[in-house]
């Protein structure tokens, strides 16, 4: 049954309003926002300085040129920044919704809980990480020898796939809070630890870690393979290069699985409140 | 002047640090993950460039990383949480009313907080990364024993100074918090500085040669980098004595300047609330 748009907001309209309110709220303290965004920018920039120093001392990163490593670094950071911007509601879910019992109120609203949690906050702070990652990504494309024109198509889809994957991790983390109540720091292994692992070429890791970040968390599918495809770099591990043009879909598949997990978890929810 | 109030403050924060056993285990998993990713990255960088004479051998770089990971919570990442809360609510006036020396009062709390967090984690991780890793056949990846008995003793003295130095830097974040009435600024500034300059991100000896003297001379090197160099027996320009005197120099000068800054801040402190 379609309702008249004047009386009920569409999902997108509702999200736009929530996001707008959140942005206005964050800009109320422009000084704090500026300091946090700059801090975010500097932290991530220093992260790349560390990799550059290794490169400077050893002449290569395990045989990889700095351009390729920069593209990987940029991809994973931009994707994570997008997920961090959208998924703040899931990050704080345990402490702010489950423990306090205010998730009950969300359940009363005639909207998807996922949409309402996405609208919790559209966080502006990760813009520092985003800009810095984009900067390193462009510099990497500049430095790498064989950039393909198709990179213009593949890299955005890799970023979207990566953002979907990290958003999936955040949703999974929130679903876990139904059991643990408080959020668990361990999940940082998949978010910040995923960024850490995604910025190095896959060949540098041992087999167990390579399998984990390919088949359990599809990190290689949204970073490593699309980067190889865009730079026309053959895979030392023997996968055909074209796989990188399709593999970003893995990130969306991961998000889909996590959304299913979320719905199952919500169905079994028992309030902690009175 | 009695020492008792300071010892009480120390004891209280020490117990808070020991309280969260699950957090200790969660931290252990996260640190093992970051340790493993970093170690594999270093191993493949070193193996790809066998001719490069790095200031640290691979085994030393691995040991450096393990110790650094196990001492992560010893770093001055931001202000003492209790002081952050007190600054926000205005409860900071109670601290001003106490008949104690406020610098020592806050310093003993800050030191206890750092040690209460770091000591259990460091003991646990060094057991796992040291003897346990040897037993399961990962000897090449494990934490190496100290270079000699003498260097072990000197490293223990040095890390004690390092903890004191870290608490002194936390005092600077505390004063910054009292001044800006929000703990956010201290984290935005403190975390990136501490992570980069202490050698957490990349061992300080591996940075480009031109920047290394500056990195050794700045205060954050005294927290973990100098103790680890003494433990490993890697040369410090001027010997172990330089390392220890650098640490003492920073503790003394940061204390004197910090006390001055604190007096000035307290005199013009405007407190929120009635």
Please tell me about this protein's structure.
The complex is a heterodimer of chains A (274) and B (274). In chain A, 70% of the residues lie in helices and 0% in strands. Chain A has 15 helices and no strands. Chain A has helices at 11-27, 30-58, 66-86, 88-91, 93-98, 103-108, 113-118, 127-143, 151-180, 188-198, 207-216, 219-222, 224-231, 243-246, 249-267. Chain B has eleven helices and no strands. Chain B has helices spanning 4-19, 21-48, 58-70, 81-89, 92-97, 102-135, 149-180, 184-197, 212-217, 225-232, 240-267. With 274 residues, chain B is mainly α. The interface between A and B is medium-sized, with 35 and 35 residues.
Q: Compute the average pLDDT of chain A.
A: 85
What is the first-to-last residue Cα distance of chain A? Answer: 36 Å
Question: Over all CA atoms, what is the radius of gyration of chain B?
Answer: 20 Å
Per DSSP, the total helix count of chain A is 15
Beta-strand segment tally of chain A: 0
Give me the count of strands of chain B.
Answer: 0
Q: Percent of residues of chain B in helical segments? A: over 70%
Q: TL;DR of this structure?
A:
The complex is a heterodimer of chains A (274) and B (274). With 274 residues, chain A is an all-alpha fold. Chain A contains 15 helices and no strands.
Task: Give a topology summary.
The complex is a heterodimer of chains A (274) and B (274).
Chain A: H1 11-27, H2 30-58, H3 66-86, H4 88-91, H5 93-98, H6 103-108, H7 113-118, H8 127-143, H9 151-180, H10 188-198, H11 207-216, H12 219-222, H13 224-231, H14 243-246, H15 249-267
Helix pairs in contact in A: 2-3, 2-8, 3-8, 3-9, 3-10, 3-13, 9-13, 9-15
Chain B: H1 4-19, H2 21-48, H3 58-70, H4 81-89, H5 92-97, H6 102-135, H7 149-180, H8 184-197, H9 212-217, H10 225-232, H11 240-267
Helix pairs in contact in B: 1-6, 2-3, 2-6, 3-6, 3-10, 6-7, 7-8, 7-10, 7-11
Question: Tags for this entry?
Answer:
heterodimer, A: 274 residues, mainly alpha, 15 helices, globular, B: 274 residues, 11 helices, 71% helix, 0% strand
């Amino acid at each position: 049954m379609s309702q008249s748009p004047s009386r009920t907001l569409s999902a997108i309209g509702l999200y736009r309003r929530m996001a707008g309110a959140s942005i206005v709220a964050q800009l109320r303290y422009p000084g704090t926002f500026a300091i946090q965004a700059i801090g975010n920018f500097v932290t991530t920039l220093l992260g790349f300085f560390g990799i550059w120093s290794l490169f400077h001392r050893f002449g290569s990163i395990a045989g990889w040129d700095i351009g390729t490593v920069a593209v990987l670094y940029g991809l994973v950071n931009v994707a994570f920044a997008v997920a961090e911007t959208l998924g703040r509601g899931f990050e704080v879910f345990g402490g702010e919704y489950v423990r306090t019992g205010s998730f009950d109120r969300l359940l009363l609203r005639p909207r998807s809980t996922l949409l309402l949690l996405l609208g919790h906050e559209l966080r502006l702070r990760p813009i520092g990480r985003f800009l810095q990652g984009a900067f390193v990504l462009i510099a990497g494309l500049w430095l790498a020898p064989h950039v393909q024109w198709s990179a213009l198509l593949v890299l955005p889809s890799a970023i979207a796939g990566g953002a979907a994957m990290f958003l999936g991790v955040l949703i999974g983390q929130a679903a876990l809070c139904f059991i643990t109540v408080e959020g668990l720091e361990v999940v940082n292994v998949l978010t910040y630890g995923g960024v850490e692992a995604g910025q190095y070429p896959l060949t540098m890791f041992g087999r167990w870690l390579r399998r984990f970040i390919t088949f359990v968390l599809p990190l290689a599918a949204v970073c490593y393979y699309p980067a190889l495809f865009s730079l026309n770099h053959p895979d030392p591990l023997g996968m055909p290069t074209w796989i990188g043009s399709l593999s970003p879909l893995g990130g969306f598949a991961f998000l889909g699985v996590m959304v299913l997990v979320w719905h199952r978890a919500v169905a079994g929810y028992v309030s902690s409140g009175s | 002047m009695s020492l008792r109030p300071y010892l009480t403050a120390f004891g209280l924060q020490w117990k808070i640090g020991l309280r969260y056993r699950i957090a200790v285990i969660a931290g252990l998993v996260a640190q093992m993950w970051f340790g493993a990713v970093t170690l594999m990255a270093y191993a493949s960088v070193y193996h790809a460039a066998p001719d490069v004479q790095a200031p640290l051998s691979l085994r030393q770089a691995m040991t450096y990383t393990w110790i650094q990971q196990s001492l992560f919570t010893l770093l001055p990442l931001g202000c003492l949480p209790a002081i952050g809360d007190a600054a926000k609510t205005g409860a900071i006036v109670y601290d001003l009313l106490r008949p104690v020396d406020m610098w020592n009062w806050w310093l003993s709390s800050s030191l206890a907080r750092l040690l209460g967090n770091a000591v259990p984690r460091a003991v646990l991780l060094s057991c796992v990364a040291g003897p346990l890793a040897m037993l399961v056949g990962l000897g090449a990846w494990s934490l190496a024993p100290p270079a000699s008995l003498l260097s072990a003793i000197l490293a223990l003295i040095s890390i004690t100074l390092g903890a004191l130095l870290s608490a002194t830097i936390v005092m600077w974040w505390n004063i910054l918090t009292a001044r800006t009435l929000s703990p956010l600024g201290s984290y935005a500034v403190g975390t990136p500085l501490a992570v980069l300059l202490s050698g957490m991100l990349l061992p300080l000896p591996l940075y480009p040669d031109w920047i290394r003297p500056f990195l050794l001379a700045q205060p954050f090197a005294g927290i973990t980098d100098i103790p680890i160099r003494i433990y490993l027996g890697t040369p410090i320009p001027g010997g172990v004595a330089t390392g220890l005197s650098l640490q003492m120099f920073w503790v003394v000068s940061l204390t004197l300047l910090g006390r001055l800054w604190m007096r000035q801040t307290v005199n013009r402190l405007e407190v929120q609330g009635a």
